[in-house]
Amino acid sequence: MAVDQLSIRIRKVKNSRLSQVDWDNLQFGRLFSDHMFMADYIDGAWTNLQVLPYGDIPLSPATSSIHYGQSIFEGMKAYQNDEGEIYLFRPEMNHKRFNKSAERMCMAQIPEEVFMSGVKKLIELDKDWIPKDDDSSMYIRPFMFATDNFIGVKPSETYRFMIITSPSGAYYNKPLNVKVETEYVRAAVGGTGAAKAAGNYAGSLYPAKLAREQGYDQLIWTDAKHHRHIEEAGTMNIMFVIDGKLITPSLSGSILPGVTRDSVLKLTKDWDIDVEERPVEVAEVIRAIELGTLSEAFGVGTAATIAQIKSISCHDIDYTLSDPAGREVSNRLQNHLNQLKRAKIEDKFKWLYKVV
Ligand code: COI
Q1: What separation in Å is there between the alpha carbon of 74 and the centre of ligand 1?
Q2: Is residue 308 within 8 Å of 324, Cβ to Cβ?
Q3: pLDDT of 232-277, one tens digit each?
Q4: Distance of CA 75 from the midpoint of ligand 1 (Å)
Q5: Relative to the CA of 76, which ligand 1 atom is closest?
Q6: Is there a single domain that holds both residue 87 and residue 211?
Q7: What's the CATH number where 89 sits?
Q8: Ligand 1 atom at minimum distance from 196 CA
C-alpha cells in the first residue's frame, strides 16, 4: 500500500480556532489544533482514512478498550524554524515502537504509510498551529484503541487509530525534585513496561500522587524484584553524569526505549564522552552524590526533552544536586537538540524529516 494510493477523506473546519491561541502562555497538552486523523481497522484492513475537525467521538459503552485497556500511544513533535520549514525528528522510530507496542498488546499493526500520511496531512493542514520559539513545538499524539463492542476478555478484532496535535510549551518548566520509589512498581520484566501502553501510565498515578503530596515532582522507578536498580521516570528515561561518564540504565525489558534516550546516547558517543549503558544501582547513585562525583542528573524524553533534576530523595533523605545552570553535558545536549530539531545545525545522523 503506497502513500499516494492511500485515499484520505478530508473535511476541514468551517471556523478555525487559531485566533484564540495565547502563544505566550502555551502549556503542555491542553490545547488541540483544528483537525484530527482517524482510521478504522475492520476485517483485517485499515479503512475509512480521514482528516476531520477535532472533536468528540461517539463510543459504545461496551468498547473493549475501556474495559480491558488495549490502548497504546506515541509522542512525537513537529518543529518550525524562522524560515517556515517544518521538521519531524526520527518519526520512523515512533512508528516502529508503535507497532512493537501493538504486538505486545495483541493489537493490529499499522502500516508506515498510514501512520506517516496521517501525520503529514495533519501537519500540512494545521501548520499555522506550530509554535516557532525554541521552547515550544507541536506535540503529536498518535494512538490506537480496541473498538469491539464486547465485554468478554479477548483481543479485539477492530481498532481505531487516531492522531491529534497540540501546540505545546515545555512539559516541565523547572528543575525537578524526584523521589526514588522503593515500594510501588511501574513494570516488571515480562510485563508491558517496554510498550507505550496506556495502562502503564494509569498504574503510576497513585504512587506519583503520594509523592506529590510529599513535595516531589516525579518518581524514579526501580526494578520490581528488589528495588535495587534504577529504571526510568515514567514520563522520561533517566541519565546521570558520574566521574565525567554518562550513565543510563540499559533497556531491561521493563523500560521504555526512548527516542530521545537513543539520540542522546548516539550524540554523546559522537562527542567522545564515555557512555555506559548498564544496570545502575540506586546505592551507586547515592554514593556518587555523597562523594561529590555525580555532577548531573536529568530525564530525557520527547515531551520532557532534557529535564534537569535538582534533588533526589531516597529512603526519606533528600540529596541536593549541583546547580542545573552549570551542567556541561545536559545543557550542551539541550542546546544541540533544540537547534538540530529546527535544522539550524548539521544533521549528521540524518534524523530530520522535512514535512513542509
Ligand atoms: C512523550 O514523551 O511523548 C510521552 O509520551 C510522555 C508522556 C507521558 C507525556
Answers
A1: 7
A2: yes
A3: 998 999 999 999 999 999 998 999 999 999 999 999 999 999 999 9
A4: 5
A5: 3
A6: no
A7: 3.30.470.10
A8: 5
Helix (H) or strand (E) holding 53: strand 45-53
Of 350, 346, 335, 333, the C-alpha closest to 273 is 333
Task: Note whether 147 and 43 are same-domain residues.
Answer: yes
- Last residue within a domain, chosen from 168, 188, 208: 168
Q: Which residue ranges have their beta carbon within 6 Å of ligand 1? A: 75, 235, 301-304
pLDDT exceeds 80 at position 159:
yes
Whether the Cβ atoms of residue 100 and residue 253 lie closer than 8 Å to each other: no
What pTM value is reported for the model? 0.96
How far apart are the C-alpha atoms of 45 and 110, rounded to whole Å?
10
Geometric angle at alpha carbon 140, from 61 and 80, rounded to 5°: 160
Which domain, by its residues, includes 193? 176-339
**How do residues 128-156 score in pLDDT, each as one tens digit?**
999 988 889 999 999 999 999 999 999 99
Q: How far apart are CA 127 and CA 54, in angstroms?
A: 15
